Write the structure tokens for this entry.
Amino acid sequence: MSMSTSSVAYRSLRGGPRTNLADLVPLPAPFTVYLEPTNICNFKCSYCPVHFDDYAERSGGLSRLTLEDCTRVFRDILALGRLRTLNLYMLGEPFANKRLPEFISLAKQLDVADRVIVTTNATLIDEAMARRTIESRLDYLRVSIYGTSNSRSAQVTGSKIPLNRIVANVTRLKSIRDERGSAWPHIYVKMIDAGDAEDNKRFLELFGPISDQAAVEPAMNWNLPKDEVNLSGPHENLDAEHFRHKKTACPFPFYSLVVNADLRVTVCCVDWEKAPRSATCVIRRFSRSGTARRFAIFA
């Protein structure tokens, strides 16, 4: 696998020195902000709230971020302090907002963060969008794969988009990037552990040669299996080593914030309903005429 010349390999980002939050909190500004380009997605993954029949209603409606609002958000972020990481994604498919490359370019122009990351299913990255993304100087593109066959992918995503379209889109993006001699973006392709060694091997063989890095990642636990709707997949996946040592408190609210496409702010990366359930924070809507002081308030 090749690697873009000036990018640090994505998985290496997690291997560097870690900050002890206990020594630093409360922070004057978040380390990381998730800014959601849209909460609209062309997939209806079985483990994601987007597949709920009442998703639009429960999430407060379907939204796309505008360039004007994106500019205001970036300026308010900088009033708080420069970020380590800006993630231009949350729940929807980022490329469903065609202005995404403009958001990236603006973030780089304003120097909002050390790195800008987009996570995508890659189905909407046609040639024109690939060129715009490369020109935006995006640092990291994370591509999520949901199966190594059309049948498995369709089963998980509720979509008839064939796997070979995703393969073609990723291949073309990397080819254009390399032909231009660009260092951006670093392409990281991931799939959740299928629980089948052969399936995991097929994924690595398929996407390893067309990316900078390909990796099989552990399952994400959205909730507990006893919850009304389990968003984690088969319960047996939660018995894996990754989940045996549970944290007594989530560290996310102490260093990160989420700004949703409708400009509502939350401190939880999976709070898709944007409904605070704790007295530890007050969620504020991003004011179109407001200042950084309205970004978020912690009790």
Notes: The beta strands are 32-35, 83-87, 113-120, 140-145, 186-192, 213-217, 256-259, 265-266, 281-282, 297-298.
